[in-house]
């Protein structure tokens, strides 16, 4: 798995949380988990994964505060979070209750 650089699991009806370990894959540059049924928070490993250049998480059921890290600010600016109404935080300009 350490050699994976491109992982596209979009539109696979995946149900569960995003595994914490996924952001620690050393060569992962492109991750597409959009259009599934993923739940829970965005794993911390993805919020600091500077090696990932493209992250697509659209149209899942993710929730919780998106940490205000440089990585997440870059992804938020390019709209990789739509369709996850439970996400909030300053990165998205949406207050958490």
UniProtKB/TrEMBL annotation:
GO CC term (a single one): endomembrane system
Key word Transmembrane helix present: yes
Main location: membrane
Membrane topology (UniProt): Single-pass membrane protein; Single-pass type I membrane protein
Keyword Hydrolase recorded: no
Domain of life: Eukaryota
Annotated localization: Cell membrane; Endomembrane system; Membrane
InterPro entries according to UniProt: Leu-rich_rpt, LRR_dom_sf
Keyword entries, A-Z: Cell membrane, Glycoprotein, Leucine-rich repeat, Membrane, Phosphoprotein, Receptor, Repeat, Signal, Transmembrane, Transmembrane helix
Family: Belongs to the RLP family.
PANTHER family in the record: LEUCINE-RICH REPEAT-CONTAINING N-TERMINAL PLANT-TYPE DOMAIN-CONTAINING PROTEIN (PTHR27004:SF203), RECEPTOR-LIKE PROTEIN 12 ISOFORM X1 (PTHR27004)
Official protein name in the record: Leucine-rich repeat-containing N-terminal plant-type domain-containing protein
């Amino acid at each position: 798995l350490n050699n994976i650089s491109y992982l596209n699991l979009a539109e696979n009806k995946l149900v569960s949380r995003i595994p914490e370990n996924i952001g620690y894959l050393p060569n992962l540059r492109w991750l597409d988990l959009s259009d599934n049924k993923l739940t829970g928070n965005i794993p911390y490993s993805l919020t600091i994964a500077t090696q990932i250049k493209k992250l697509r998480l659209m149209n899942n059921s993710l929730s919780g505060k998106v940490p205000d890290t440089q990585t997440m600010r870059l992804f938020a600016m390019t709209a990789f979070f739509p369709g996850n109404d439970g996400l909030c935080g300053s990165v998205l300009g949406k207050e958490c209750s």
